[in-house]
Structure formats: structure tokens, C-alpha cells
Amino acid sequence: MQHTISVLVSNRFGVLSRISGLFSGRGFNIESLNVAATNDPNISRMTIVTIGDEKKIEQITKQLNKLIDIIKVVDLTHESFIDREMVLVKMNAEVRVREEILRIVEIFRAKVVDVSPGTYTIEITGDEGKIKGILLMLRPLGIKEVVRSGRIALSRGRNSIN
Q1: How many C-alpha atoms does 112 have within 13 Å on its Cβ side?
Q2: 89: nearest Cα among 46, 132, 152
């Protein structure tokens, strides 16, 4: 099962390395990782997506909590949360498929952010289902490159890990 783990950390040199070392040293894979400072420049929030059963995830969260510079660890998977990812897709924009690409972009409420004679670059922001859906529709039309930001997530409502 896929788990989304939110981690507040001290914004210091080496924290990311220690966390990724914890995962690799125990044979856990990180499916997605996003890190950025919060409204407090001394604290960063990491959103880690990994796959594992409850026992494995419990082990990961316990090990994370033991690391220096970890402020709080929350597995959001069993909570109500909002998640988003941004994807940039560079498309072959041959004349015969341009209208179809633009129609798909409009349906998924994405944006064309760059146009050149032979390519369109599309920005897509949304949850995993939306991202999978638009990529499935665009793939037959000629995707050249894809870059993904990784998932970010927050608890819904008043719940907060601060």
C-alpha cells in the first residue's frame, strides 16, 4: 500500500541525507520526495511517498522519529488530506495533433506554458488520478519529456502537524 508521510525537520545541512540514508539502509524505496522550507525558514516540510504494509511504515516512522533534527512525523494515509503534484510535459506538436493536444489540455484544466514550432510544454497540477489520466491521454500523441515535482500534502481542516 502507498503511504504519504509528512515530516517536519530542522532546515539544516545533512538532514535530507540522513533521511534518505535511513530509507536506503533498511531497503525501503522512496517513490516520491518533496522538500521545502515552511513559513518558518528554520523548518522544512518533507512529503515522502513510500510503499509498504502497516508494520513496515510503523518501523519507518519510529526510525525517523529517532533521527536528530526531526520535529514531527505523521503518516497522512489514514487521515483526510489534500495532495497535489505538478508535472511539466513536453509534447511533439505536429500540425495533425495540435488541436487534440489543446482539447485534452482544456478538459484537464492544464496550461500550455511554452510553444515552439514543433513542441508544446504543458503544466499540469493535480492529484495522482488527474496526472495519470492526462498522461494516458497525451502519450499516444507524442510525449517527448516529462518532469514531476513529487507529491505535496496537507491534512484537511483544522488538523496540522505544526
Answers
A1: 18
A2: 132
Q: How far apart are CA 58 and CA 53, in angstroms?
A: 9
How far apart CA 65 and CA 74 sit, in angstroms, is 10
Q: How far apart are CA 135 and CA 123, in angstroms?
A: 11
How far lies 157's CA from each of 2, 63, 84, 95, in Å? 22, 28, 16, 46
Which tens digit of pLDDT belongs to each residue from 77-93?
Answer: 988 999 999 999 999 99
Q: What is the pLDDT of residues 11-37, one digit of tens each?
A: 999 999 999 999 888 888 999 999 999
Q: Of 3, 43, 44, which is closest to residue 23 (Cα–Cα)? A: 3
Contact assessment for residue 19 and residue 35, using Cβ atoms and an 8 Å cutoff: no
Q: How far is CA 46 from CA 8, 19, 23, 96, in A?
A: 6, 10, 14, 42
